[in-house]
Amino acid sequence: MMEQTNYAGRIVNQPPEAPDTEAVRAPVARSSWGRADFIALFLILVVATAFRFASLGDPPEMIFDEVYYAKDSCAYVLNDPEICEVDGSQAEVHPPVGKWLIGMGIKAFGFDSFGWRVAPAVGGVLTVLVMYLLARRLFGSWLWATIAAGLLAFDPLHFVQSRTSMLDIFLPMFGLAAVLFLLIDRDRALLATRSGDPPSRILGRPWLIASGATAGLAVATKWTGGFYLALIILLALAWAASREQGSRPQAWWAALRSEAPAIVLWLIVLPVLVYVLSYTGQIGGKLIALPWSEGSWGRAFFDHHKYMWDFHTNLEATHGYQSAPHTWMLIKRPVSYFFCAGASCKPPIADGDYQEIFAVGSPLVWWTSIIAMLGVGATWVRRRDPLNPAGLILAGFVLTYGPWLLPGASRSAVFLFYLLPTVPFMILALVFWMHRIGETWEGRAATALFSAGALAMFAFYYPLLTKKSLPQPDWQKRIWIFDNCDKPPGPIVTSTVTSTASDGTIETSLTETEDNSSLPPTGWCWI
Q1: Which residues partner with 340 through β-bridges?
Q2: Pick the residue with more confidence: 315 or 286?
Q3: pLDDT at 4
Q4: What is the C-alpha separation between 20 and 15, in angstroms, rounded?
């Protein structure tokens, strides 16, 4: 056996018949799956589950956008206007998979706060599971996988979205699974190449098929799931090029020629098929008819999507909790899903106490990840090796977050929680550097200190994430100094005021007032 050094500086074994080339080098020396993996994964899943399911049904009423998704999901599975409080679908501007999943919880547990939140809670736990498996393959150790999964499990935004009946938690669940399955397909192809047996081109690619199917489910949850689909197509091409011989342009062309049939079939056609099938039972019309004819299913499908497109591209409504995409990683404007004070709470709490559910990121983790991601980018630019974990992390970050930053790409009513699909890659960037410095005692100490700080930050914010009562001074401490909540001038609203004079005549006058209630603050505002 020949020995070869991997990115971490360890020695890995390579069959003698394999060509001595960067293109077929194992990206990370992986230890075999052992008892430590089972114990670590079991413990992290138990803890993640316990925290997400504790008092999951509190508050018992709908919060924030649950008023749309919980009712629509109920209509999907029960179709009872009296129970679901809605006749048909209210929010037809998103595909149906996320609402089908929420509906499964309602079907199993009833139309109450636990029933409409149980599916997101399960989705959050499954995302932590996928994060462990993905980090395990990238970094080759149960330790780094545990840190990555733990940071995600205790990320405040991921935690809150796991306990709220909205669609966003399902995006990283499906998207990360698609990336994981593609990574497994890549490793199988690398092993086949190293053993001198060319990998299967189209058939015999179960993990590639699974990747395309789960990416299709991400798109069928929200259109922004398409960012993940673009990611796996790019990665599939880059990894195929790394297996080809010759210069880089030649390798990319060779990869395109060899992988095009599989990519078109499994990463384009299959996701489209999954997306279309997700509308089964949600769009009526004749199946056996010309697609463009009136009354056909195809025409109804097209009209529905034209309506969705028009809504998203022409949306002008504003919201007090919206924020510009370039401020999301800075956590400039979190979102309050629920708030009550004193006697207004149900049941009433002490005067001066507050209860809140606050969708916010971890300042320690998120702000540090900005530096870590810059370092990941520099590493990739220097090496430009698609097999290096830096390539996957950087591509995931750019393709899930970058489109929001393009000029003219954003619209009104976008929120901090839209960053959720990017959060796993922010965490992987941190673990990438922990892995790089982890060989020294100083590196291990820094990693332990940072992980402890992340847990402490979660514990500090936990009352604001779970509607626990806090005295106003303690609540204020968690808001920090981010109380610059002045709003810009709003549009002038003209209203008619009618009054009755002393002589019985009716007088009508016009008043003009400035209405900025739906506008977001201009400064850093956590209130």
Answers
A1: 355
A2: 315
A3: 35
A4: 10
Q: How many CA atoms lie within 13 A of 412 on its CB side?
A: 11
Looking up tokens 């020995």, which residue turns up?
3
Beta carbons of 465 and 156 less than 8 angstroms apart: yes
Cis omega (within 30 of 0) for bond into 172: no
d(C-alpha 229, C-alpha 182), whole Å: 11
Taking a C-beta distance cutoff of 8 angstroms, is the pair 276, 219 a contact? no
Q: Which single residue is written with the structure tokens 């342009």?
A: 249
What is the tens place of the pLDDT at every residue in 240-269?
Answer: 877 765 446 666 677 777 788 899 999 999
- What token pair was written down for 322? 């919206």
- Beta-sheet strands, E only, within 375-416: none
Three-class SS state of 265? helix
Neighbouring C-beta atoms of residue 177, cutoff 10 Å: 24
- Higher pLDDT among residues 19 and 101, named by residue: 101
Supply the pLDDT for residue 19: 37
Task: Output the six-digit token pair for 18.
Answer: 């394999």
CA distance 102 to 111: 10
Residue 333 phi, psi dihedral angles, 5° rounding: -140, 85
How are beta strands 2-5 and 506-514 bridged, if at all? Answer: unpaired
Structure tokens at 222: 């929200």
Residue type, position 473, single letter: P
Least confident span in 113-122, 273-282, 295-304, 446-455:
295-304
pLDDT of residue 289: 73
pLDDT surpassing 80 at residue 360: yes
Residue recorded with tokens 């529905």: 304
Question: CA torsion sign, 322 to 522 to 519 to 472?
Answer: positive
Please tell me the distance from the alpha carbon of residue 406 to that of residue 404, in angstroms, as a whole number. 6
Q: Are 78 and 107 in contact (CB under 8 A)?
A: yes
- Bridge partners (DSSP) of residue 286 are 296
Is the Cβ–Cβ distance between 172 and 420 less than 8 Å? yes
| Structure token digits, residue 9 | 């500086």
Tokens of residue 461, six digits: 């914010």
Report whether pLDDT(121) > 90: yes
Hey, how many other C-beta atoms are within 10 angstroms of the C-beta on 517? 10
Cα gap 309→226, rounded to integer Å: 14
Which candidate, 427, 420, 424, 381, places its Cα nearest to that of 404? 420
- Give the CA angle between residues 494, 499, 504 to the nearest 5°: 150
